[in-house]
Amino acid sequence: MRKHGNSFLVLALALTAVLVDCNSEGDILHAQKLVWEDPNNILKSWDPTLVNPCTWYHVTCNNDNSVIRLDLGEAGLSGPILPQLGNLTNLEYLELYGNNINGTVPEELGQLSKLISMELQQNLLTGPIPSSIGNLKSLKFLRLNANMLTGEIPIEILNLIRSGNMSVMNISDNYLDGTIRRSEQTGFSITTVIMDQKTFR
Predict the structure, then answer these.
(1) CB under 8 Å to 49, separation ≥6 — which residues?
(2) Nearest-angstrom CA–CA distance, 107 and 3
(3) pTM for the full model?
(4) Whether the Cβ atoms of residue 42 and residue 76 lie closer than 8 Å to each other
(5) For residue 166, which of 135, 197, 122, 128 has the smallest C-alpha distance?
(6) Tens-binned pLDDT, residue by residue, of the chain (201 aa)
(7) Mapping DSSP to helix (H, G, I), strand (E, B) and coil, where does residue 59 land?
(8) Run of H or E residues at 144
(9) Is residue 109 within 8 Å of residue 131, measured between CB atoms?
(10) Which residue of 28, 37, 63, 124 is 20 to 30 Å from 82, comparing CA positions?
């Protein structure tokens, strides 16, 4: 009987750990909701009293009830991206394109080690592109075009392209410094790095 009791205790502790994890992700997303202006009430289902955020609209979870996708493109949102989003450890898709999101791209997004797609284009983002994004070896699609980003493209991100990890990087229509030298374009395809004459100042 004691053996069964111990097994039940282990299972209960494991379930508690999962629930705590889910609740922390819900806390992160609710904190993000609080700093965003949401005139279309897109985030009305983001209720922090629920066990986890997996039933919220525009949120997708895996079988462990951990957030893997945020789909908030063209949602009419404005305000900053919180650094705490970098703690959504299983996030694979961050889709925030076509909003009025401002402020900087947080360095902490470089902690999203499972991220496949970062779609932040057509917003009002300023400041540099964080070099920490170069840590994201799983990142295939990086779209930062049509913002107000400044500074140089971090070498760490260019290395993702050189290594063949990243498929598409669109940084057109920003205010970046410098150029990409011909020697740095070796192996780049037209569909990989998308720039225009306005990209660099």
Answers:
(1) none
(2) 47
(3) 0.82
(4) yes
(5) 135
(6) 445 555 544 444 444 444 444 589 999 999 999 999 999 999 999 998 888 899 999 999 999 999 999 999 999 999 999 999 999 999 999 999 999 999 999 999 999 999 999 999 999 999 999 999 999 999 999 999 999 999 999 999 999 988 888 999 999 999 998 665 443 444 444 345 776 655 555
(7) strand
(8) none
(9) no
(10) 63
Architecture of domain 2-194: Alpha-Beta Horseshoe (3.80)
Using alpha carbons, list the distances in angstroms from residue 172 to 52, 149, 187.
37, 10, 19
Phi-psi region of 64 (alpha: psi -120 to 50; beta: other; left: phi over 0): alpha
DSSP one-letter code for 184? G
Q: How many residues does the chain have?
A: 201
